[in-house]
User: Fold this.
Amino acid sequence: MAVDNKKTIVSSHNDWDPLEECFVGTATHARFPTMDRSTHSFCFTTEKYKDIKDLEGPVDQKIIDESNEDLDKLADTLKGLGVKVRRPVPQDHSKTFGTPEWNTTGYQTYSCRDLLLPLNNLIIDCASPLRSRYFETRAYRDFLYEAMEGGTEWISAPKPTLLDEIYQTENLSAPSTQNHEIVFDAPNVVRLGNDLLFQVSNSGTELGAQWLKTILEPRGYRIHMADKFYAFAHFDSTVLPLRPGLVLFNGDRLNPDRYPKIFEKWDKIYFPGDKIVDVGCDLPNGVTTTSPYIGLNFFSVNENLVICDKNQTHLRKELDRHGIETIGLEMRHARAMAGGFHCVTLDVKRKGKLETYF
Assistant:
């Protein structure tokens, strides 16, 4: 069903239509949550527990302050491009909360991409594998009510129980979140108009994809599974569609013989991993929440303009070769705070209609 952009709040079908309205995250009150099975399995999958156990508590104030400087610069840049920018309401992540099975503290509202999935005139509150993010979408509560009153469908996925046995860190070639429950983050879904690519990973289970099928296929969407391409978290440093017919792949994870076949007829850029500049991480013990590949995590303003890390000179030259201009900004603590430019934005309104590209 076509959506009238003038009368609705949520209208977003892909990552490249002209951007009209988006959220930019905030690092205020960010902390590392209770270091339980959930946090270890998802945030620090490859780290030893002894190296992360003392991280629990507020993130270093220098990291918070510099992250907020970078986020504010991003917000101002988007405003300068005529985009309406919203910010999540800062939450007190130090409060303890729980279910009958566990207790935890909160995490952060830096990566506002992760928990809300906008699709046409629908927004889905996702089922994160992180206990610490169970109530994080309260930061968007006013917006969600406003969207609903404007005619947007607002759906919440079933809340998973997230028992200890759902998590594993023994076999890192397989997802650390096992297929016991409906689990998925929004960046497990690559939005391609009527077609949606679902990544099975630490942050998305097959049952998560099955639930989405029951909700979305009656609405005309097609769900395509992407399994065993990349076992860790989200897909937005691995598969990055730039415009209809052109996609950029992380060349260390995908190659001409191994990529999601939905893109078979598209032009493909295999960007080599050794051309990604590592921005580093200020956490102790050599610990990090993401790989250097977070440098590929860019945000499209439209199909001819993206915002990316200013340090990624090779990436910017490659995009320029394909007629795509870049604005280079800093996201100094992307590897400590677990998010690049796509992660810290949530595009709730783009100027375009729901189309089929395949």
Remarks:
- The chain has one domain: 19-350.
- The two ends are 18 Å apart (CA to CA).
